[in-house]
Amino acid sequence: MLVDYAESLAIANGRSLEGEPAKLIARALEIDPKNPKVLAFAGAVAFNRSDYKSTLQYWNTLLQVEPADSPLSQKIRGAIVRVRQLAGLPPDADVAPVASRPK
């Protein structure tokens, strides 16, 4: 799976998702836009670029497809609170989920 390869490359590059890992994640998102792992990584790419709106869109989409009680959903819900703070949004601000490629 492309996202697994992107993760391996990122680990080998000091945990950086920039460059080839980001390209692979974008391609994986085109292939499977509802895959929770792909959405998690797409949100991380957007977060690292300070694109908080896209981060929230990817992660809100993830919450729609991942079971609410999963460890990933719990972790993402906590991260969303922090991203909203960084974006200057109230904790309950609604950001529509959208699955599109990282910029």
TrEMBL record:
Keywords: Lyase. GO terms for molecular function: lyase activity. SUPFAM superfamilies: TPR-like. InterPro entries: TPR-like_helical_dom_sf. This is Cytochrome c heme lyase subunit CcmH.
